Amino acid sequence: GRMSANTSMVTEFLLLGFSHLADLQGLLFSVFLTIYLLTVAGNFLIVVLVSTDAALQSPMYFFLRTLSALEIGYTSVTVPLLLHHLLTGRRHISRSGCALQMFFFLFFGATECCLLAAMAYDRYAAICEPLRYPLLLSHRVCLQLAGSAWACRVLVGLGHTSFIFSLPFCGPNAIPQFFCEIQPVLQLVCGDTSLNELQIILAGALLILCPFGLILGSYGRILVTIFRIPSVAGRRKAFSTCSSHLIVVSLFYGTAIFIYIRPKASYDPATDPLVSLFYAVVTPILNPIIYSLRNTEVKAALKRTIQKTVPMEI
User: Fold this and answer.
1) What pLDDT is recorded for position 43?
2) How far apart are the C-alpha atoms of 116 and 246, rounded to whole Å?
3) What are phi and psi of 230, to 5 degrees?
4) How many Å apart are CA 129 and CA 17, to the nearest integer?
5) pTM value?
6) Cβ atoms 74, 284 nearer than 8 A
7) Which regions of the chain are under pLDDT 50?
8) Which residues does the UniProt record annotate as the domain G-protein coupled receptors family 1 profile (predicted)?
9) CA-to-CA distance for 70 and 168, rounded, in angstroms?
10) Would you call 296 exposed, middle or buried from its count of C-beta atoms within 10 A (0-12, 13-18, 19+)?
């Protein structure tokens, strides 16, 4: 019938994010290219430092290295394609390309949700259970936590993506976003998608709010413990370790909750790409900055590495 003939027509989508800023394409290209290069370089540096420096072998740095590797993948799913679109003015993405981008974005984003929760548990164990810390976070436990985060999220990404792309798209193919994000793609599906929306909101609530709840619980316990520390210096040291993590968590979760846990009718093409920009492009560059600049051990490791590679002047 006409419906099926139309359904098979949508073989590609148009990603219209930032296309309305016609005069600023060159400037946007320069800004995003700079952010992308700094993100990759900063996160890569953390991966190298943690892998090579003997002082950075605690579980906290194992998770930080995993997070940095994750951020490189996460930002590479969206930004290079956006740069290509800004440079060429061609905004097409094939249907399979769109599905692939959605899968990887969900996969990396959902893994980050879990990883931030594992990092909160690590801080909880270090501050609240210092004597049992080596036992609670042995290398095996760290590998299991990181591994289960990756594995479970592959299923999430596959589930969501195959589910949406098995639905019929019957005509309009313009996505008011700079990458294939669930909500705007779902708006192009013809027919009633209220059930799909409900599933996405429920899955989002489970995948975002559960780790977020664990994080809040961990930090609640941490704060109670910190306030019991008699010395001001000890209190300050314990809090500074956590505050950097808290900044990253609030930025990442705040924007993710705003985008994913609400009905698609409230999707606003004018403001939502800016919010998405925040957790897709801005958070990955903040991680190395926040964790390194606020962390004396990482700064010391960087200094040692520079001294090793750059011979001292006589």
Assistant:
1) 93
2) 10
3) -70, -40
4) 47
5) 0.85
6) yes
7) 1-7, 314
8) 42-291
9) 32
10) exposed
Pairing outcome for strands 12-15 and 174-175 = parallel
Domains in the chain, please, with CATH?
A: 12-299 (1.20.1070.10)
* Torsion, Cα of 99, 101, 102, 106 (10° steps): 140
Token pair, residue 198, equals 């409900």
**Alpha carbon distance 178, 258 (integer Å):** 17
From the CB of residue 123, how many other CB atoms can be counted at a distance below 10 Å?
Answer: 22
Per-residue confidence (pLDDT) for residue 5, from 0 to 100? 46
The phi, psi pair for 107, rounded to 5°, reads: -60, -50
pLDDT of 259 reads 74
- Exposure b/e, 198-216, CB count within 10 A at least 16 = b: eebeebbeebbbebbebbe
Q: What is the pLDDT of residues 214-258, one digit of tens each?
A: 999 999 999 888 888 788 887 887 777 777 778 878 888 888 777
Q: How many CB atoms lie within 10 A of CB 248?
A: 19
**Which amino acid makes up residue 293?**
L
